[in-house]
Amino acid sequence: MKLPEEPPRDCPLCPRLAAYRAESRAAHPEWHNAPVPGFGEIGSEILILGMAPGLSGANRTGRPFTGDHAGKLLYATLLRLGLATGSYGESADDGLSLVNCRITNTVRCAPPANLPTPEEVKTCNRFLLGELQAMTRLRAVLALGVLAHAAVVRASGLPQARARFRHGAIHELPDGLLVADSYHVSRYNTNTGRLTEQMFVSVVLALRRRLDEAS
Question: How far is CA 35 from CA 90, 162, 195, in A?
Fold first, then answer.
């Protein structure tokens, strides 16, 4: 299968993100400090979509959610439910492998304060669209948070009113693609109890049941 287009290492499309990347390279030249590519096989049936790399997490390691606090719950859940094998060591060379799923972010570069602007999300949507098109066996997207949900609906060419974000909801788009919504596995959400481990596990299990029923 053909791999999707990824933004170049020195992607200039979002000036604010490019400047922030340059600052990080100067301070930490040993880090990845570049757009973070997707992780997992392009022939997978499930795409897990986050918001953006964390500055000292995925931006450092070069693998989505790896080194971020959010990765602890995400990868523990994938390992628990058989969607990953190995062990999560918070580094890109920890040997962890994904099973029938792929992980990427809505915005590929780390943003200041961990929050991309709407224009940056719109600009980077071309890469998400390319990923969706390249994943020819794709059946479902697990959207982590409102921003990721909105991005995949945009990439699918639908108005937001057709599928509004709601934690635990599973939307079926006109082309048959399922979009499962979960609150983001961020430190804020887990520390405040807005998202618990069991809540997140329940969302993933519900999505897997839906896929099994449709098989």
Answer: 18, 31, 28
DSSP secondary structure, 30-57, as one string: TS--SPPPPBS-TT-SEEEEES---TTT
Q: Is 60 left (phi over 0), alpha (psi -120 to 50) or beta?
A: alpha
What is this structure's pTM? 0.96
32 to 28, 37, 38: CA distances (angstroms): 9, 11, 14
CATH number reported for the structural domain that contains residue 103 in this entry: 3.40.470.10
Query: Tens digit of pLDDT for each residue in 3-46?
Result: 788 899 999 999 999 999 999 999 999 999 999 999 999 999 99
Domain membership flag for residue 85: yes
Q: Count of domains in the chain?
A: 1
